[in-house]
Write a structure and sequence with these properties.
Order of helices and strands: HEEEHEEHEHHHEHEHEEHEHEEHEH
Distance between the termini: 46 Å
Radius of gyration: 24 Å
Helix content: 25-40%
Number of strands: 14
CATH topology of the largest domain: Rossmann fold
Largest sheet: 6 strands, mixed
Shape: elongated
Length: 331
């Protein structure tokens, strides 16, 4: 056990995983601090879930080392499992059992006494909003209810570290918000959270620090704000009246920042001063006799960060909000 692994609930050094000739994870380094929500952001197939499976002892690394809760994921896998909670995207939950029965079973697997299991189970079901549905078969649950139950199952033994793999994929906005609220609460109580996601809004809302993984490699890492700041200044998009001189409008905007491509009938430029400079720009356009019909200021997004480091847009970039909507069955 390294000194560094004791200081970080999750630590990885040159971690790799290959499937035949395909290298899914190509040597990544991670150091996640106690009490952190760490976002692991990337498209499907980037290596997110493979990394989680190695860190949670479900998959052996092909090379490199990793420690979770101070324990080596290969040589001390049992202790790792006792220290973590895991809610995987494709978790199998028996549809014929009730939520309460599954909680009881999970408690038994962790060696929790019947009395303690009942108390903890009732508290967890209430916490995730499933008390009224506790004695219904899970096969009748909606997608959001199943994900909330999966979260409760992962918390029965009060883990030090919680792994959430794509926790809100396919959920409606209300279910997504409920999961987000619970993750924030757990983190405020001291739980370290490792969150994989392909949704920009989710990473931006929850994570204090983010790593972007693409083709098995970490291509960017930092706080959401620091990553977005590296992309550049906000962009001001100015929609012009049909009678306006587009070239003259571009000339005015060049006084404030770098010109960027824009749609026909509009001009755009970087605006180092952000929102504080918009009034000045409007005044300058008015003084030049240029009629404006609309203004939009666009701050850099995590999708812009992903595009900058990979040359592609991230699947789900506009989604945190519009992923496959699934109606919630009443609890």
């Amino acid at each position: 056990m390294s000194d560094s692994s004791l200081q970080h609930p999750i630590k990885a050094e040159a971690l790799k995983r290959s499937f035949g000739k395909i290298e899914a994870v190509s040597g990544i380094d991670l150091a996640i601090a106690q009490g952190e929500i760490f976002g692991f952001l990337g498209p499907n197939g980037a290596g997110k879930s493979t990394t989680v499976r190695m860190l949670t002892t479900l998959l052996l690394p092909s090379a490199g080392r990793a420690w979770v809760a101070g324990h080596d994921v290969v040589s001390d896998a049992d202790r790792v499992r006792r220290s973590i909670g895991v809610a995987l995207q494709d978790a199998a939950i028996d549809p014929l059992m009730t939520g309460r029965e599954l909680i009881k079973l999970q408690a038994t697997l962790h060696g929790i006494s019947k009395a303690e299991a009942k108390a903890k189970g009732d508290a967890l079901l209430e916490r995730v909003g499933l008390t009224a549905a506790a004695d219904r078969r899970v096969g009748t649950y909606s997608g959001g209810m199943r994900r909330r139950l999966d979260l409760a199952l992962s918390l029965i033994h009060e883990p030090k570290v919680l792994f959430l793999d794509e926790p809100t994929t396919g959920l409606d906005p209300n279910s997504r918000q409920a999961i987000w609220d619970e993750v924030r609460t757990l983190n405020h109580e001291g739980t370290t959270v490792f969150l994989t996601t392909q949704y920009m809004e989710e990473a931006d809302q929850l994570a204090g620090r983010i790593a972007i993984i693409d083709n098995g490699l970490i291509v960017a890492e930092g706080t959401p704000a620091s990553l977005k700041a590296k992309v550049g200044d906000p962009t001001l998009q100015v929609a012009l009246d049909p009678s306006a001189d587009e070239l003259a409008a571009e000339t005015v905007l060049l006084r404030f920042g770098e010109s960027v491509p824009s749609a026909v009938g509009s001009v755009a430029s970087r605006l180092p001063g952000g929102a504080e400079q918009v009034t000045e720009v409007v005044r300058a356009l008015d003084e030049a006799g240029i009629k404006v019909v609309g203004l939009e200021l666009h701050n850099p997004t995590l999708d812009d960060v992903f595009h900058q480091v990979t040359g592609r847009r991230l699947e789900g970039a506009a989604a945190g909000a519009s992923v496959g909507e699934e109606a919630e069955a009443p609890a």
